[in-house]
Amino acid sequence: MSHGVLPKEVAEGMRVGMAPLARRLHAIGVTPNVVTFTGFALSVAGSVLLAMDRPLAAFILILVGTLSDTLDGTLARAGGGGTKLGAFLDSTVDRLSDSAVAAGTIGLGVAASDALLLWAGVIGLISSSLVPYVRAKAESLGLTANIGLAPREARLTVFLIGLGVWAILGYPLAFTAAVVAVAVLSTITFLQRIAAVAAALRA
Asked: 72, 90, 94, 98: which one is catalytic?
């Protein structure tokens, strides 16, 4: 699986680091679906705080919500691989979480009268939603389209780095730059996947 601009070691390291916690949660009866919806709730709450210009609280909640998304898959594997329903819910809730975070960004752009942040958020929302759509449509045709510079985990990492720099160091322009980067990278990834599918269908 491609991790795009995110180093493979970082992505795999996160999953390995989650394994002990996943085994503990499995042992006490916590299900992957509970973790999935908890992460979603945290991401939504963080997005609301982001729109309210409270970057530190937003960063903490969105970060924990994002880590929960990694944890639910690890927890499913700890329990024997999970279920088709769990996989469906995880993928669907991921889209909702991403939309919530984008909405929080757009809301902040409106409140701050920041046209760059607003439109970067809108473009990021649209292109980020198209990236998994192209993959799903390709798979329905018997093809694969998991390539590209910025799959979801890479986009979230860039976003969280920018939000974290703003929240901790007080540089709001770092967050704007991260949102712009996500918009650009997700658009490139969408186009890369379109090109790959088109090439495969012409072959």
From this structure: 94
